[in-house]
Protein 1
Amino acid sequence: MTTGHTCAVAGIAARFLQLRQRTLELCAGLSAEDLQLQSMPDASPGKWHLAHTSWFFEQFVLGRDPAYRPRDPAWHYLFNSYYQSVGPMHARPQRGLLSRPSLDEVRDYRRRIDDAVAELLDRGDDAEAPGLVELGLQHEQQHQELLLTDIKHAFWCNPLQPAYRAPIAAPADAKAVPLQFVAGREGIAEIGHRGEGFAFDNETPRHRTLLQPHALANRLVTNAEYLAFVREGGYREPGLWLSDGWATLQREG
């Protein structure tokens, strides 16, 4: 094993532990009841996210070893999401019904997977493991975003209006830079991944595409601007909405 390869493996091992811990930190202020909530069919409970991201490493990293024995074979069905090639899965809209395994069992599952993956990387005898772990980390970061989205939607559904975190007050003199639209370049452009770093399969192959005339704002919309949109009747003007959005607005009130 070369020095460069050893450093790369050490780097991925450190990132693995850091990002796995970050997922737990996102749940630190949440109760077992919070992490069981599924507020709509397109959302998933936080506990399921914790388990599914661990299942991913178990299935696609550890499971490549014929001698590996899963924590519980029945969990393969519970925590698969849409990977049809590796077997059937529990229906997504019913994930909120999975009171078992418990949150403590799921946390223990994560610890077991973390230890096993760290040991695999430390051994350094599987040349494909670092690349697969990198894929798993990219996948876990996607689920960190989903976990936050899902718990915030669940809290929004609660009449008590609980907050995920205490708000951070903006400075009294905070002011957005003036909004401007910046014209983008036109013509033939190359898009897609190039290089040796990580990329998802849908980011390749690199190819040419035609850029039509367009412009982008130099910053994001502010909360104050969105509030002004609401107060000035933005939710009462169908011409400002795509048809699906307007239909949802009418249905949900």
Protein 2
Amino acid sequence: MQIAVAGSSGLIGSTLVPALQQAGHDVHRLVRRAPASAGEIAWDPETSGIDPQALAGFDAVIGLGGENIGAHRWSGQVKQRLRNSRIIGTTSLADAVATAGVGIFINASATGFYGDTGERIADEDSPGGSGFLADLTADWEAATAAAAATARVVTLRTAPVLSPRGGMLAKLLPVYRLGLGARLGDGRQWFSWISLADEVAAITHLLTADDVAGPVNLTAPEPVRAADFSTALAHAVRRPAFMRIPAAAVRRVGGEMVEEMILASSRVVPKRLESSGFTFTHPSLTSALEYCRA
């Protein structure tokens, strides 16, 4: 396949691109500067977008763009940046996909679509939730609409991706290795996750899963309680984690971001992914953390 990837320098993209190349695909990166090689295509996701002719002849476009959702406390200005970085760029890609006649459009999304699931298990047939993340994710997915004129569109409702190279786990590992790991809130909230290896393998799988379209939950099949995640991570690095930080203290530090990303429950399962025949390398948290620690 000839594949264009936006967001190729991020945690997922920087692993996905070489994996696709090793699988024999011809991969081009969308870059926000003048192309430095024949394998790069220039675009400006928040202003001029991309020339659809640059995608002529491509089999698939994968969009992984978006500013880091957890990098800053959510002020009004940060929220607008988070929306712009996802919705404007996705709209631009979707329009270009439709104009160029690309047959497959796979775009990032998030399990935040479901909001706080409490004790309820959420699959792709579950309704959307409420809150900033749920609204943002719903609008993000809606921005892919134009691509449906020509493409099989898949939106990747991805859980937090576990990798020692980036994301949440990269921030937590040094803390836990010092023996300073702590449970946040009461620890009963559910936590959905996926290893980086399974995230990349799932995207690769969905490129050729011709009967799969629409939202797909990219989560491991075994969500865990937040307290159990803390215990498992401490065990993986062979350190204790006895501390607990009350929810009120966490809210004072992180505000709405912490409320929706850490204190809320996310009990999401990968119904469509498993039904399509995908097999997880790391179905359990223990195996994922051991892999990340190695």
